[in-house]
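Backbone Fold Data
Goal — fold tokens
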Amino acid sequence: MESHHTSDHLPPITIHKNGRVERLSGNDVIPASLDPQNDVVTKDIVYSPEHNLSVRLFKSTKVAAGEKLPLLIYFHGGAYVMESPFSPVYHNYLAEVVKTSNCLAVSVQYRRAPEHPIPAAYDDSWSAIRWIFSHSDGVGEEVWINELADFNRVFVAGDSAGANISHHMAIRAGREKLHPRIIGVAMVHPGFWSKDPVDEKDVRDERIRSQVAEVWKLASPNSVDGVDDPWLNVVGSGSDISGLGCERVLVAVAGKDVFGRQGLAYAAKLEKSGWRGELEVVEEDEEGHCFHLQNPNSENALKLMKTFVEFISYSV
């Protein structure tokens, strides 16, 4: 059977002539378990029967009776094509976040490209937020959210493509006046891009820039403007981000990450936009894209974890 391989960058997939997509990595999963693993229990709940999509819930075994917890809504990375909330890298990361911060975490599954091109991931992510917020009065279908979630302390976060999704969810939350309000949004190594370098220090290697464009074309083949699509080019598209629907933003960038300059430019744009929230920017000069997931026990990964946990532990 004939097939077409993408080039030598992420995501590693094969698209067969009959349209079948074969992911060559990122297929391993960790099942949810009510048996404590490192003081954390997990379970999966379907939030979209129409698309057979679930969220994975994480909670500590050390929650006190009657205690209300910060609610973290997390969107995974993977170029809109790879990974899931059930992937070992994301399961283990969220379990560690929950153990360290004692929050209630909800990790969102969304439909992936190329089978489901952009904007499916954004549509699903908003559906998940609406489903989660249907519990804000304590009578939703999921007991953990009803009993444990403090909807006065809701945080949205993600890495890479998931950080991009987090931005757009906050924009929509502001536009649609989501209630209760999201307190904070954490974007770790956000996946923003543009046809032209965003500043003099941005990536100029045409091979790298064309590879990013190819990945975006795989995820969003119908984008008229290619990588200048406003979904991806948030910094330079002329989009107004002053209505970001949250009070605090954390932007984490890495000096050796191809998306690093875009992340810094996003923070600068937000600061100048008229948005009236509190912005925090952290940078690790000698690290690459999502280093904290690849080497979670490194000194810099532990430092980023501390920053992230402090951010989502904020009290109004």
